[in-house]
Amino acid sequence: MKLEINSAADMKKLGAFLGETAKPHDLLLLNGDLGAGKTTMTQGLGRILGIRRPIKSPTFTIVREYREAKLPLFHMDFYRLENDDLSSIDLNGYLAEPGLVVIEWPQLIMKDLPDNYLQLIITRVDDSWESTKRVVELKPKGERNEKWIKDALKKFRE
Asked: Which domain of life is it from (predicted)?
């Protein structure tokens, strides 16, 4: 399933509907080039969860925790993960918490992830850095994630 996104506001809106329909222990994987909109989507998701502080890319910190949210958010970015080494991160601990885990650049650690997740692949429509047009491909794995995307898209299209 694919969605056309025409602005950063629409990307945040999609994130908000994903956040509104998320449940504890959900796992959201965000794939896309640098500047594709992964963090922008997470910002919309965080706002709907009640996070008031700025949501920034965790590129240099690897993990940012937002425990003050209605549903705790654990935002991870594995772009700078060296040699696929997860030894400094308790990934299983985060996945066991009753929160929402969002992972940017998950392709670097797919072998360490559970089989059930919602994956979004964000692609620019053109090569211009000024353009905000994107295509988001939604790939749910597992029954819960099929329902999650169905509920989120229903709200997104209203």
From this structure: Bacteria
